[in-house]
Amino acid sequence: MTSVPTSWKTITITTLLSWLMKLILIAMLPYVIYKGNYLFALATFVAFLLSLTPSIIQRNYRVSLPFEIDLLITLSIFLHTFFGELLEFYHKIWIWDKILHVYSSAVVAMLAFMVVFNLHYTKKIRLTLPFIGIFTVTFALAIGALWEIGEFSVDQLFGLDAQRGLNDTMWDLINDLIGGTVIAVLGVIYVRYSRPEGRKRLGKSIGEVLESREKARSGTYDAENP
Q1: Alpha helices (H) in the chain, listed in sequence order
Q2: Which one, of 57, 182, 200, 52, lies nearest residue 116 by Cα?
Q3: Are 181 and 174 in contact (CB under 8 A)?
Q4: CA angle at residue 205 from 21 to 216, to 5 degrees?
Q5: CA–CA separation, 184 and 202 (whole Å)
């Protein structure tokens, strides 16, 4: 088997997938500009910047994120931008908007939970676990409300109909509440009862995956350490 360059061995599978979606978002720009959809081009560029949020938080605030939150956020934006807008899933699949709102709010809640828990764990701030859960739900709702304000502003400025009425807006906020609450509850339970070593699987690198496959082929694979 051909050896993999050392630089590639340090890249995780989730990081590779995340950056692949980021590159697709950037690659979409020339096409939507060619089609004359300048507002969508701007939204795509902003989406790309938002997909960099986890990396910025981890680098600037030195907060260790135990899960591959970068992939989850990028996937949320990719599902909205590429599938929802470009492929028009919002119009073709009536429940697409609701599913994506629950998922996106859950991802935002997960990011909020991880950041505030890490700040608590490193003793930069002191909070009780239930209060961390409440903060998680509140943060998810706040981001959801800002999203609705953004849709309202775009509708007013460009004469669009992104909100599609009061009922749609309220259901979006309810879905944000559902997603945030689920993650808050699961996050509190996970932190209270899980073992830290169980998180290592999510950060397995390409090099480790290839080495495991090579061991399996040679008959030296250790089933207890996949």
Answers
A1: 6-9, 13-34, 38-51, 53-61, 69-78, 89-92, 96-121, 129-158, 166-193, 206-218
A2: 57
A3: no
A4: 120
A5: 20
Name residue 206's amino acid.
Answer: I
CA 147 from chain centre, in angstroms, equals 15
Which of 129, 13, 161, 29 lies closest to 86 in space, CA to CA? 29
pTM above 0.70, yes or no: no
Q: What is the CA radius of gyration of the chain?
A: 20
Q: What is the pLDDT of residues 105-153, one digit of tens each?
A: 998 898 888 878 777 777 778 888 889 899 999 999 998 898 888 888 8
Do the beta carbons of residue 169 and residue 147 sit within 8 Å?
no
Distance of alpha carbon 143 from the chain centroid:
13
- Find all residues with CB under 8 Å of 192, minimum gap 6, and list them: 129
Q: Which two tokens stand for residue 62?
A: 């030195």
DSSP state of 165: S
In the block, residue with structure tokens 């706040």: 142
| Tokens 């599609």 belong to residue | 164
Residue 117 near residue 191 (C-beta atoms within 8 A): yes
Report which of 177, 173, 148 is spatially closest to residue 163, judged by C-alpha positions.
Answer: 148
CA distances from 38 to 21, 30, 41, 56, 221 (A): 21, 10, 5, 27, 53
Under 8 Å between Cβ of 64 and 11: no
